[in-house]
């Protein structure tokens, strides 16, 4: 069994922040039991605080990735796909020797997604909505580089405000 020390706390916190393992797997990796993990969490404030900070950092990274993904869906993005085809070398005596036969690079532009734009303009996910509490959506500011996307956003926003006023 592992003995409580700062090095072990840092390793557990780093594994939690990575978000690749369950608590059971983390305990197995560091050589402690689940019971010991939860006992330390309940009795050692430094351990509990390190776990809370690791969870908070993990959640912040997840939110950042979600914002980046939403931004791509709002603005559009380029996607590059490469494909390399190999064949056996005719010049070599080694039958496992390969040479590149073909190298293909495909690039495509993924247009902004209307559903993501509407979702953002309508206030997006709001936790209070999920709890059935009435709360006005917070204003959202979207900055885009493309003039066409800017016009599309303005048109959608105008349509949304017309729908709201007709209700």
UniProtKB/TrEMBL annotation:
Q: Which Gene3D superfamilies match?
A: Homeodomain-like
Report the Pfam families cross-referenced here.
HTH_Tnp_1
Please indicate which superkingdom the organism of origin belongs to.
Bacteria
Which protein, by its recorded name, is this? Putative insertion element HTH domain-containing protein
């Amino acid at each position: 069994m592992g003995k409580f020390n700062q090095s072990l706390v840092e390793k557990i916190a780093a594994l939690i922040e990575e978000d690749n393992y369950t608590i059971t797997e983390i305990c197995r990796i560091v050589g402690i039991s689940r019971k010991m993990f939860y006992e330390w969490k309940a009795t050692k404030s430094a351990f509990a605080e390190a776990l809370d900070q690791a969870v908070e950092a993990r959640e912040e990274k997840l939110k950042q990735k979600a914002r980046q993904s939403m931004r791509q869906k709002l603005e559009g993005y380029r996607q590059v796909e490469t494909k390399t085809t190999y064949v056996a070398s005719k010049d070599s005596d080694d039958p496992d020797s390969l040479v590149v036969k073909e190298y293909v690079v495909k690039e495509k532009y993924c247009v902004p997604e209307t559903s993501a734009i509407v979702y953002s303009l309508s206030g997006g996910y709001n936790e209070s909505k999920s709890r059935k509490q009435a709360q006005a959506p917070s204003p959202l500011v979207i900055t885009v580089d493309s003039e066409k996307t800017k016009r599309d956003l303005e048109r959608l926003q105008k349509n949304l405000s017309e729908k709201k006023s007709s209700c």
